Amino acid sequence: MTCPKCSQEHDENQDCSNSEPQRVIDPNADKQPENNLSPTVSPPEDGRENQPANPGNSGGINVRGSNINANRDVNFYLKAIATADATADQSPKGEEEKSLYDLVKPLSPRPQRYYRPADLQEMVASLIRDQVILISSSYDEYALDAAWEVIEAMPDSPDRFNGRLAFEETAGKGVEFSPQKLCEQRPEGEPATVLLVDALDSQANTFAASMLGHSARVEAARQDLRNSKLFLVVVVNHKYATEKKLSQPNRSYKSFSYWNIPFLEPFFKRWFADHEQLLAELAKQRTKWDEDEAIFTQQVVNYHANDTLRDVISNGGPKDPDSSAESMLKTACPVEKTVLYTATFFNEITSPEFCRVVESLLGTRTMLKDAPAVSANGATPATAKIEVPLRRAWDEEKDEIFTKLLVETSTATDSPRTVSLSEFNLAEPLRKLFEKRHRFYLIDQFKVLQETGIFFYPSLRLAKNTTQLAIDLAQIYPDEFNEGWIVTMVNRIREYFAARGSDEERVEDPMFYFLSNTQPGAFHVAFARVSEICQRFLESPQRKSVVPNSLEYLMKNGYQQEVLWLIKQLKFNPEFDDWYWLKQLLNRGDLETKYLTYHYILSYLKQLGTRVYEGLKKLEGWLPPTDRSNFKDFDTFIFRIVIKYCLDTIDRCKAKHYGKWPSRYALFTLTDAETANSRFGLLANCLLHPGVDRTLVGLNIDGTRIDLIGILLAEWSFILLGTPRVPQTPRKNEKEDLANNDTQNFTASQMVDLLLKQFLGRLDSLQRLELLKYWTQLDSALFTFGHSYSIADDQRNEMKWKRVLVQRLIRELKLAPTARPVAKRSAGLIVTSSHA
Fold first, then answer.
1. First to last CA, the chain
2. Angle at 224 between CA 220 and CA 229, to 5 degrees
3. 379-408 pLDDT, tens digit each
4. Rounded to an integer, what distance in angstroms lies between the CA atom of residue 322 and that of residue 440?
5. Which of 372, 379, 553, 594 gets the most CB atoms within 10 Å of its CB?
6. What are the backbone dihedrals phi and psi of residue 632, each rounded to the nearest 5 degrees, phi first?
7. Where are the beta strands (DSSP E) in 269-381?
8. In sequence order, what are the beta bridge partners of 162?
9. Helix axis angle, 334-345 relative to 460-476, nearest 10°?
10. Is the backbone of residue 737 left (phi > 0), alpha (psi -120 to 50) or beta?
11. Average pLDDT value for residue range 572-595
12. 3-class SS at 374?
């Protein structure tokens, strides 16, 4: 076209270089609406260039390092929402959530190793390819040896960090043990990290469970870890790996690469010169040993610890466990019976913990014991029965009893020594005998464990055993251990920790004898015990209904925040519908609980990373009808969550990721048009719903959803296509991809087209006019500051390439197919009154 300023030909949108830049005059500039919806930009004042940088985004106008801002931008909406939240939400937030990533420690040296994997290079290759490998062994020592070997065999990288994260380090700290939290909380700019994750504890199973199960979850975890430059070597407990059949991949359950580290041959090679002969003999008598690999391993370890392994093998294998267990229990005195009970139902606990359990069970009970009686006539002394406290008998004979019945071993070099039956294969027969012939004894003992504080003892080792014992009893006596039992525990936890203030209010509850309510993290320890019980109930087809029944009772009786806490702990269990219960809390909770749930869902969406559409799909299903005139708190919270998620993630998106393809932005990690169309349609349904207008009113924000859409679409186009290397004039081919990477058939430019299609196709002509007005004013503001010498060169350049993309949005809007008819009283034209 011929430029009216210089009478020369150049592109329609190219700035004239032969005359002074002039601001485009908006014919409607003097006709601003009363609610002042325009992206008005205040030019920098003299002497303001050296002000501190503003790190946020602002509708495409704010530049990092400048103080340019707009009346309607990302920061404006975020501040308005924060103000509304602070005003309405008076709920105590409790302890600030600690960062899981802060618990990562440098990987310590492991000089002694007794297992070195033969397929080490294959394991390393899998880790490099998938970002994650899983390892387990029936003998923990060898699993940890293998993990160290893999990490140290990774290709050299001068700036790589090797670290370790152990579940035990998180206990009582109120942190979520999951890869999602690791990625979310990992500081920007950290070097590539290879992390050994010790998830051997049963409560740590959620770490692996959160990224396994189906293809989408596995792929999303892989992508999130790749984006975060994290490699994970996860050591899971052997029981979990066996239950999930990780060594047998199938179509229905997807996993990362998994290695089951063998125990038997490496162990015998280490300790016996004639290991081949012993292993051959052991193979012949294998049916006499326990079938379960973990129990078989412990049998071998215990016999070896007592220096009887060779003799047992030479004598044809272990004795018949059933007859041995029956004889042992029949001849046991009350103290020995208690010791056998503890050794049967409490595995892998330390000697002090073992003694504490035994002493709690003995309590104040007594037994009759023979004692010499004095004869008056000097005859041979007779015997008499005297009553002796069981605790005293235990104190006098504990060493002898320990040597007779028990053994102390360790399954790893850096693990504590733990107590178990010297004849480990007697544990299961003893368990069956207790359940068959001593059923009331079992119930009484468990009640004692509860009422003397052992059930809530702050030890993960004890927790695992008390949980298993409770589940076993629940299977036998479902009427005793059901939802009523769970609710009672929750009630006692609330009462105990609610009284942590003054001494006058202090509640003494023997159930928490070992858990002070003033101890940091004690509440998390107590509730973790309840959630672990619920986890195990969910795994049982016959008992899983106990969990929803318990939650429903808690909901009805004012324990809504406790329900939220349990939801957080149970969300990765495939048998638990966490979104159903989150919906119940938003619908039925008090205002304080609703706000807590709102904050949690928002955080949850961010944790989902590239799987965010799974959560957004749930929220879309909760949307009210578009013709609803009155919106409930539930409705406005849903819209607020979606709005704030979009604004927060834009604000947190780093400038260095703009224009990169494939995109690092969670909403745009899509690789095909069909998926993008579906998901962008979902996004448009949520953000263009009339309820968004009502939500903005509730936030004291003057304006409509169209203003918000104008900001979001502009920002999203900058994230997808923006880069300082984009030329300052538009390319001749408007559809050409402006991204600086094009590694897939589906390009960033095509993604922008699909995004606009889904949003613009849902607007009527008046709404399109409102959107056009916003983008036109934004274009004018960018033009002004793109030619202002009161800001730095890089800031002016950013204004210019952003203006190129805004002009593209304007052209697409003008070229869009015919708008749908204007609906009567179109919600898109709602103009709210100004708020002070």
1. 48
2. 145
3. 656 667 788 899 999 999 999 999 999 999
4. 21
5. 594
6. -85, 170
7. 366-373
8. 194
9. 100
10. beta
11. 94
12. coil
Query: What are the distances in angstroms from CA 689 to CA 34, 67, 775, 821?
Result: 24, 33, 21, 17
- Tell me the three state secondary structure of residue 232: strand
Q: So what's the pLDDT on residue 287? A: 92
225 SS3 class: helix
Degrees (nearest 5) of the Cα angle 183, 185, 189?
Answer: 80
Counted residue by residue, the chain has a size of 836
**Alpha carbon distance 91, 531 (integer Å):** 23
Positive or negative: CA dihedral 105, 109, 112, 114:
positive
Q: What is the pLDDT of residues 487-522, one digit of tens each?
A: 999 999 999 988 765 555 556 889 999 998 888 888
Assign 424 to helix, strand or coil.
helix
Query: Residue 758 corresponds to which tokens in the numbers above?
Result: 């889904």
**Do 806 and 782 contact (CB within 8 A), yes or no?**
yes
**Residue 272 pLDDT greater than 90, yes or no:** yes
Amino acid at site 338: T
CB 175 within 8 A of CB 98: yes
What is the distance between the alpha carbons of residues 416 and 351, in angstroms, rounded to a whole number?
Answer: 10
Percent of the chain residues past pLDDT 90, beyond the cut: 53
Q: What is the pLDDT of residue 824?
A: 60
| DSSP annotation of 254 | B
With bands split at pLDDT 50, 70 and 90, how would you rate the model's confidence at 683? very high
Q: Which amino acid is at 113?
A: R
Q: How far apart are CA 207 and CA 216, in angstroms?
A: 16
- DSSP letter string over 466-489? HHHHHHHHHHH-TTTSSHHHHHHH
Counting beta carbons within 10 angstroms of the beta carbon of residue 243, is it exposed (0 to 12), middle (13 to 18) or buried (19 or more)? exposed
DSSP summary character for residue 689:
S
Angstrom distance (rounded) from CA 66 to CA 127: 43
* Residues 709 and 687: beta-carbon distance below 8 Å: yes
pLDDT higher at 11 or 170: 170
Any idea what DSSP says for residue 700? T
Tokens read off for 574: 């495939």
Contacts for 403-406: CB closer than 8 Å, 24+ residues apart: 405/328, 405/336, 405/339, 405/340, 405/343, 406/339, 406/343, 406/354
Paired tokens of 87: 């005003």
ω into residue 416 within 30 of 0, thus cis? no
DSSP string, 729-772: S--SSTTS---S---SSS-HHHHHHHHHHHHHTT-BHHHHHHHH
Q: For residue 359, which of 317, 409, 312, 398 has the smallest C-alpha distance?
A: 398
- 289 by DSSP, 3-state: which? coil
